[in-house]
Structures are given as structure tokens and as C-alpha cells.
Amino acid sequence: MQRVAIDAVARESGKHGKLGALRRQGFIPAVVYGHGMVPMSVAVPVRAFERVRRTTGESAIVELQFEGDKAITTVVQEYQMNPIRDTYTHVDFLSISLDEPLTSRIPIRPIGTAIGLKEGGVLEHSLYELDVQALPLDIPEYLEVDVSDLGLKHSIHVADLKLGDKIKVLTNEMATVFSVVAPAVEEAPPVPEEGVVVEGAAPATGTAPAAGTAPAAVPAEVAPKTVSKK
């Protein structure tokens, strides 16, 4: 996991009005908890947090830097956003130790071109994230999986992934990550034989209805809509 630093300030737990004023000043209200510490209300600059999210994605070790050289090592546990403005409204930071295993979820990305595509197949990406446990600095930002040798009707499962001895995989090893499948073929509707009446179809012009069938109904004339003007 990449390690980044963000300036943070302690704040008092306030009401909604105080939190709104804090956001207007360019800060995101946040809380830090975990690893035996008493939950602490803090605030971080919105631009600094957005920059971290853009450059490190979902997984990063965030060092919250306070005045007086105080720092807390954390990861982003959860965040909330305004669905209309698409802005951050609150962040939960989880305090961690670099010497203790951490459970995390890392993205999975394909690299290469599967040989099965040349055979007319389609690459399906079934599992997008992998649950793992390891020391924080041993957890990768993402996992690249080479699909070059994947042929038609073949799959890559979690058990096939190589992450080394330092990382424990928590996801079911039988779960499918990638597979190359044959493209779906749409069946053409059946063509009726000559002289066979298809249910629901109107008889051809100039021909009588088939025996035992009622003649097609003639739609009634639609009355014009009248609009009164006063």
C-alpha cells in the first residue's frame, strides 16, 4: 500500500450547523478510531483528500499529521458523499499498526490479450476485488492478472493467482476471476410455412380469414379532441 500524508486538525464534535460551516471553509469533517484509541473528531482539507483518492485509489496508508509533530497512521475505512453535488461530506479513518496484519480489499486488473478472443470468444471479468490479509506495507494497491494464455472456454480462478507468501487470500479459492466464453447467439424467429396462419397475425390483403377464425376487428373512428377556449 502506498503511504501518503495529510494535514489534519482536531475539532469539537458539533451540530449540523457547525459541520456545514467547516465544509464551507474547505474541510471535511472526519473521525479517527480503532487500535485501542478513543475516537477522535478531526477535519482534513478537502483538496488534499481528493488528491489522495485520485492518486492512490481505494487503498492507501494515510498519515494524519497534526500540529506538534503528532501523527496517526490510518486507512480510509468509510466515506460519505453528497449525491447531488458529488462532494465528500464525512470520512472515517481507521487507526492501524504497521506491525499488525490488516484485512483489505484490492482491485483486480487484466493485462494482455486472451488467445481465446482470436477464436471468437469474449473475455468475462467476474471478480473485480480480492479480499486479503497482510502487513499494511505488504498489501499491493492492485493486482494485475495476465490473461494472455486464456483460451476459449477456459477460466482463471482465485486459486490460480500468485501473491506470494506474505499475503493471505480470504476470498473463496474456487471463485472465477476471468473466463473466455463463446459469444451468445440470438436465435432467429421461425418462418411460417406458406398457407399457415401465425397466431395473432392479420390475414393478407385480399384473402379470406382461415376457417374457424374470426375476421379482424375494424378499429372504431377516433373522436377528435375538443379544447374549450374561454
UniProtKB/TrEMBL annotation:
Keywords: Ribonucleoprotein, Ribosomal protein, RNA-binding, rRNA-binding. One of its GO terms (cellular component) is cytosolic large ribosomal subunit. Residues 203-224 have a biased composition (Low complexity). One of its GO terms (biological process) is translation. Residues 103-183 form the Large ribosomal subunit protein bL25 beta domain. Residues 7-93 form the Large ribosomal subunit protein bL25 L25 domain. GO terms for molecular function: 5S rRNA binding; structural constituent of ribosome. Residues 203-230 are annotated as: Disordered. SUPFAM superfamilies: Ribosomal protein L25-like. This is one of the proteins that binds to the 5S RNA in the ribosome where it forms part of the central protuberance. Part of the 50S ribosomal subunit; part of the 5S rRNA/L5/L18/L25 subcomplex. Contacts the 5S rRNA. Binds to the 5S rRNA independently of L5 and L18. Belongs to the bacterial ribosomal protein bL25 family. CTC subfamily. This is Large ribosomal subunit protein bL25. The gene is rplY.
